[in-house]
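Contributing new records

If you add data, match the layout below exactly. Sequence lines come first and carry their own label; structure lines follow with theirs. Keep one chain per record. Anything else will be rejected by the validation script.
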Amino acid sequence: MQDAPDIEPELSSGAMKLRKKKLGNLPWDHTGRHPGNPYFWKIVLLLIGVGLRYIFRRSYYEKIPDYEGGRVISSMHINGLVDPATLVHSQDRRIISMGRHDLMTMPLIGWFTRRMGSQPVIRKSEIENGVSDGEYARKINDRTLLTMTNCIASGHNAMAMPEGKSHHDSHLHRFKTGPMRVALNAASIAKHRGLPNPALQPVGLHFRCHHWFRTDVL
């Protein structure tokens, strides 16, 4: 992975819009409680299940080993929002996730992600392109990482894509340090509170042909 390319994502029109007021009002929690709505989560699972049955012809999920502590679920990322939806559907617990800031503030999708408790990230490419200044980005990103790590330490699952973006290249891009940092920080918090140690859970997410409608997923 040392020689893997570190390619910054091309910013979408949504990523170029920083809605500070909405970002400031997003739910977050540093006590270990999940910031999302538990009742809305059940509705989300139902909607995702219906959607995935429509998108995929066949799907197979391997049973996840029982584990008392929280888990950081980490996988490749080639299929946009289909990837996190598939991972959410495969898990046995509520998930807290992080993603680019506009996914939490845009119309429709943002309405769902806010109620799911998803946390925003302002990326390096957005700072370099003048979308946000470094100080504000650190404030938001620190808040997100603290929410994620406390939730994981308390036994919730988290989802993080180590490449930091969705792409269709045939090779991996350089991994970001976020997922590992989150796992290590969560382990430190769990130890301090006398809670079960969290784990980093790699996930193989394989599509027969990811751009085909009604393809298979494993």
